[in-house]
Amino acid sequence: MTAVRARVRACRLADTYSHTRFHLALRTKTQPSTYHRLLLFRVNNVYDSNKSESDTPDAKEATEKEAPCPTLATVQNPGSDKPELYCMEETCPHLGAPLSHAEIEIDDIEDTRAVGELEDEFHRADLPVCPWHQYDFATGLKTCTYNVEVIGKGDDAEVWVDAPHNDGGHEWEVVEFRGVSEEFADPPIPSLKDLNLGDGPIPSTVPGQPQLELPSELPTSLLGFAHLVLATADPDLKCILTKEGVQRMRAGKLKSIRPTKGEIKRIRETVGLLDEPPRFATIVPLNKRGKLGRGGTEKSRIKMLHALANIEQYAIDLAWDIIARFAEFEIEGERLPVEYFLDWAKVAEDEAKHFSLLNKRLREMGSYFGSQTVHAGLWKSAMETADSLLSRIAIIHLVAEARGVDMNPLTLAKLRLAKDEESAAVLEVIHADEITHVTTGHRWFSWICAKQGLNPVQQFRDEVSSHFHGDLKGPFNVEDRAKAVSDIARLMGERQDERKHSR
Ligand SMILES: [Fe+2]
Ligand SMILES: [Fe+2]
Questions:
Q1: Does 172 share its domain with 290?
Q2: From ligand 1's centre to the CA of 255, what distance in Å?
Q3: Residues with Cβ within 5 Å of ion ligand 1?
Q4: Domain span including residue 29
Q5: What is the CA(127)–ligand 1 centre distance, in A?
Q6: Which residues neighbour 327 within 8 Å (Cβ) at sequence distance 6 or greater?
Q7: Which segment of 9-23, 78-92, 468-482, 483-497 scores lowest on mean pLDDT?
Q8: Among 71, 37, 73, CA closest to 146
Q9: Where is the composition biased (Basic and acidic residues) (predicted)?
Q10: What's the whole-number mean pLDDT along residues 250-269?
Q11: Residue 404 C-alpha to ligand 1 middle, in angstroms?
Q12: CATH number for 9
């Protein structure tokens, strides 16, 4: 008897026309939830066929805009009127490199994963190649790839992928399907080499602030970059150094990603952990910040975007802080795996991208980050959870970040009402990333609970009761919270209900 492979519905076929690569997050339907991340690559041939029902001007325009290299639009597959789709693990199994950043190369490969009726055993295709060590996945490692099938026709066509290998018989569901924008693949942050550091001190982009100073030698480890970024006051330089550290990590140019105990000890003794990261903005208590307004005027929107940029700047620091502060965390002698450090470095890069997008927008509006006062509420919460990784993840990444997911649609609506589409576009990019940050928090919260034999739901409630002082007010973005996590996503609403009942 032949074993039937479990499959998961990934998306509608039409959903794959907007980008060339997609994040696909799967979750088991049974508890405790297990997550698995895949990448779906689309090899474009659909626009070559006049017969295609999906050859719409919008779709074509979107593809031309998003195609990361010109070759994607020219791949031919005359035997099919459907795009070829490939599915594979999201991270390289050798070094943990994120394959959403993979180079796409054209080559002749054996057809094992293509969709469509192919006449030849070999055909031309785009291959994802690991950005860290140039490993060609389509030909090299079949265990990392998944069968993709398109079922149905026209508007009803759906994309299905095999369930994760070694899935233990679980039933899976898709909780996130997100195109990888080229801005995502290449965040709009200037590079260190753009600064021309050899030419002498660089003026800060923040008016009235001192010139940029860098150490004579940049760190050679992820932990070193974490401490350097945390100690950097200039917000643009903070983003540049974040990008530099993460790019060096991906290029295999860092000596260590997960630090050794010796390195942690050395850096704690020399640099130390910061009580508070320096700022090029005036910090005031939250209640002294003044009202942000409803976004009806440009002045009000500048205040709103400035407030968001402040949150993003602290979010950069918090991603590096969870790397630096908890680097030596261990459970019964087992240290945090390298994936922990990779995940949070990715979050740091996202947050630097968010800050850069917001600051760019502020400049377009004639302002800049540092023009308004800021508050340090997020950092204060982080310091109250500095002694416990579980508390830190619960309060910062499962409460505060999820709160951002709740609030973004409301802010977006205000921006759209004011017809400020440029600012709305920035917030949309940010919102999609923030959902994944809650997922990252949930992943490591669940990992620690599983290792310690704790019930994650009860533990989360305990952490919130002990360390969260505010009142959790709705509305809750139930749909996007559910994309991020399952069990914990519901809790904020439930807890509010409990409070009401106990009053
Ligand atoms: Fe962010
Ligand atoms: Fe975030």
A1: no
A2: 28
A3: 312, 315, 351, 354
A4: 1-44+80-102+126-133+140-181
A5: 31
A6: 223, 259, 264, 336
A7: 483-497
A8: 37
A9: 50-67
A10: 90
A11: 9
A12: 2.102.10
